[in-house]
Amino acid sequence: MKKSGLLFAIALLVLSCSGTPQMSISPIEHDAGKVIAKEKIEVWFVIENTGKTPLIIENIRPLCDCISVEEAMDTIPPGLRDSILVEYVAPEKVGEDVSSLMLRTNADPKNTKLTIKAEVIETKLEKGDSTIAIVPFQNRGIAGGNEYSLDLFRYLVEHLPPGFKPINPNDYANAIQTDPKYGKQAIQDVARKYNRILGIRYGVFGEIRPNPAGGTDASIMLVDGFFHLPIGRILEGMPEDVVYKAISDTINSFLQKPQEYVRQAMLADLQQKWAEQRAKLLNKPAPDITAQDIRTGNNISLSDFRGKPLVIQFFSTDCDHCEEEMEWLSRLVTDHEGIAALGISVNIGERDSVIEYIKDKHLKYPVILPDEKGEKQLDPYYGGATPQTVIISPQGLVVESFAGFSKSVMANFERLLVAMLNQEPQTAPKRE
After folding, report:
1. Does some domain include residue 266?
2. Would residue 131 be called left, alpha or beta, if left means φ above 0 and alpha means ψ between -120 and 50 degrees?
3. What is the pLDDT of residues 279-318, one digit of tens each?
4. Is 394 in contact with 280 (CB distance < 8 Å)?
5. CATH code at position 137
6. What is the pTM assigned to this prediction?
7. In the chain, how many domains are there?
8. Which domain holds residue 191?
9. Contact 265, 231 (CB under 8 A)
10. Which of 20, 29, 151, 197 has the maximum number of C-beta atoms within 10 A of its C-beta?
11. Does residue 427 form part of some domain?
12. Where are the beta strands (DSSP E) in 266-424?
């Protein structure tokens, strides 16, 4: 065999052994169904590499500003699959919408268009609306079955406070149950969409069941078309002769004191988010944040403080306890030179008001304000409530995170920070 022929055969052999990546995507077109204007929807595109070599994701480019990429991989090994998570925000214009993103890989073809389709529905809910749809409660073992639920439904409708207009819940319930996201998304989120579409201010849902220790339990949830969180309560062990009245009184309390229950729902939601974020952060390398010092214009990063215990304070200009924490932080860094502090304002886009706010505070530590492009850096830390305090070790690990202000908690933090000053320096772990 000639030398040139031998080289050609070897090249073919190498090529056949190496193989090529092959890509399978599901779905390549996502149908979001009926949505309302500005509704946010998470969409997952599952990508499988059915080839013999790694599939490399070279670029993901949204083709409109209504799509943003939230999570994406770099490489998928042969025989495995991974997902791209995008957020789609429905446009304000009513009608059919088709939006896309372009995926470029090392497979053939190199570019693949992924599409999201939606039908934007006109909303009928208006401010001042007082309509209410009470969906018959689910009966989970109470004697009487459906008849008991219907009797309870009639009682609740008949005993609503003056000014609230009950409507037939059938269309409302059917729309929720036939929505593609029913069973996949929290029911309150699906219900709130149809509050807006059908012009229903309040939707009431519930479940009744026997209590093992005696009496009746009830779970009650009210969904307000203008409020993003559900309002709920659980009643336990009610005697049979007070069940209807107790449930009715609870619903009426929601309707007559909305601000009180809205505040409770918001606090509970913030506490849950903070607890979830805290669990993800503790004992892990601190995600870096870089932004301009509000007073000097110089860039500051969390990594600049490596080697010192660092206290981060997230604050807002309308926070009740932030000034009190600022006083504590200024004293802390004055009394302990080895401890560093950094203030981070969450008033994105309000530079002038933040400068005015801190002007007379004589802070002994720098303050940064991320711009709109950099505000996502705060997401791993900030749970939505101020003040929020995060402690980072000299080695760059998140040691503690706390939302709110408490003098006893701050005293414990100070003892923790002073103890860090006396520790032997260690090599900082690298972020993966």
Report:
1. no
2. beta
3. 989 999 999 999 999 988 899 999 999 999 999 999 998 8
4. no
5. 3.40.50.10070
6. 0.62
7. 3
8. 131-256
9. yes
10. 197
11. no
12. 290-292, 299-301, 310-315, 340-345, 367-368, 388-392, 398-403
**Tens of pLDDT along 380-393?**
898 777 899 999 99
Residue 412: which H helix or E strand, with range? helix 407-421
Structure tokens belonging to residue 8: 């050609």
User: Is residue 348 within 8 Å of 330, Cβ to Cβ?
Assistant: no
How far CA 420 is from CA of 252, 283, 338, 393, in Å, comes to 53, 14, 10, 7
Pairing label, strands 398-403, 216-224: unpaired
Mean residue pLDDT of the chain comes to 89
Q: What size, in residues, is the chain?
A: 432
Same domain? 184 vs 247: yes
In this structure, are 291 and 405 located in the same domain? Answer: yes
**Residues 149, 244: one domain?**
yes
Within this chain, do residues 299 and 353 fall inside the same structural domain, yes or no?
A: yes
Q: Which structure tokens are listed for 201?
A: 């201010």
Same domain, 96 and 156: no
Which residues touch 203 (CB under 8 Å, ≥6 apart)? 132, 133, 135, 169, 172, 191, 192, 194, 195, 222, 223, 225
Do 288 and 324 sit in the same domain of this protein?
Answer: yes
Q: Which residues contact 144 (CB under 8 A, 6 or more apart)?
A: 151
